[in-house]
Amino acid sequence: MKRMMGISGEQSDHKIAGFFDDADEAQRTARYLVSSLKGGHAHVMVLDSSDKNVDAKLEPERRGIWHTLIRAHVWLALAGAVAGVLVFAILGGIGVAFVAKNPAWSSGLLILFGAIGGLLLGGALTIRPDHAPYIQKTRHALEQGQHVVVVHALKRSAIEEAEELLSQRGAETIRTL
After folding, report:
1. Which strands form 14-20's sheet, in the order they lie side by side?
2. Domain boundaries defined on the chain
């Protein structure tokens, strides 16, 4: 079930790639993962160097990424503004002179700075710094002729289970947070 109010607009926030030198072993592992992952909360595929449009297979939710961009900025800007209100209340409560003498300016500035901080955090979340190593290492493995089993999981428990199963099969792995 899709989260309607969360920060992320993607269905599958969790991704893992397992690297194999042998194509048959990669295929067997993918079938094993499909049958073993509990609840069907993951999409499994095998990539090799002949695959076209690898980027779309590694990050298939283009629309979800745009939703993440909007949601992350809106929600975190609002959270930052609320944090600014809380800081204003705390500083006013302890009697900081500038806040006590200039409540309109100080509240406005603290709310504005909080919202800007939230927007910056939303931007950092949107660029998905945890996905860059996953994409780069997978591309490199494909360039080196390896076969890659990619799992897009809907739940954190599914990605942890997939990581364990891939490791049991001898695959080197890389995952997103």
Report:
1. 42-47, 147-153, 14-20, 172-175
2. 14-62+132-175, 64-126
Residue 161 CA to residue 169 CA, distance in Å, equals 13
User: What CATH number belongs to 14-62+132-175?
Assistant: 3.30.70.2750
Segment 86-118, tens digit of pLDDT: 999 999 999 999 999 999 999 999 999 999 999
pLDDT number for residue 18: 94
Tens-place pLDDT, residues 1-28: 444 556 665 656 788 999 999 999 999 9
State the Cα–Cα distance between residues 169 and 29, nearest whole angstrom.
7
DSSP state of 159: H
Dihedral angle computed from the Cα positions of residues 141, 142, 148 and 152, in that order, rounded to the nearest 10 degrees: 100
Name, in order, each residue with C-beta under 8 angstroms of 152's C-beta and a sequence gap of 6 or more: 12, 14, 15, 42, 43, 60
Helices (H), the chain: 23-36, 54-58, 62-93, 97-101, 103-126, 131-143, 156-168
How many other β-carbons are positioned within 10 Å of the β-carbon of residue 34?
14
